[in-house]
Amino acid sequence: MPKIRLTKEFSFEMAHALERYDGACREIHGHSYKLFVTVIGEPLECESDPKYGMVLDFGLLKAIVGRTVVDRFDHAMVIRQTAENDHFVRTLQQRFSKIEAVDFQPTCENLVWCFAQLIGDELPVGVSLFSLRLHETATSFAEWYASDNV
Fold first, then answer.
1. Potential cystine with 7: which of 38, 52, 111, 124 (Cβ 3.0-4.6 Å)?
2. Whole-structure pTM value
């Protein structure tokens, strides 16, 4: 059976700040993100299976990415948690419900890697994460490929 790749696009709004960055993005700001998720697998061969001929139901892919990434990060503020800004992060978390304190600098590069881990852990047997593309703007994006991370 041939290997087939499926891709689904997701959109969400998210704010972040890049701690100690030396450019304009050190300030809290937001982006309209677009995430392209590509999985790979073989279409199901069992004719009695309701998913016959599919690698993965697009609805299931939507549910997985929705639960692991979009629901968590849409309209969230993502900030690196450090000892230096602990009080600030706690203050934000007391005031707002969608503050994501992470242990990494929330660049587009690090976010796409984080998303790859979150999504990859939830895919069913026989389906693998092939690649992710995360657009921070219409012309700027980061990509993650499974083949580069073996």
1. 38
2. 0.94
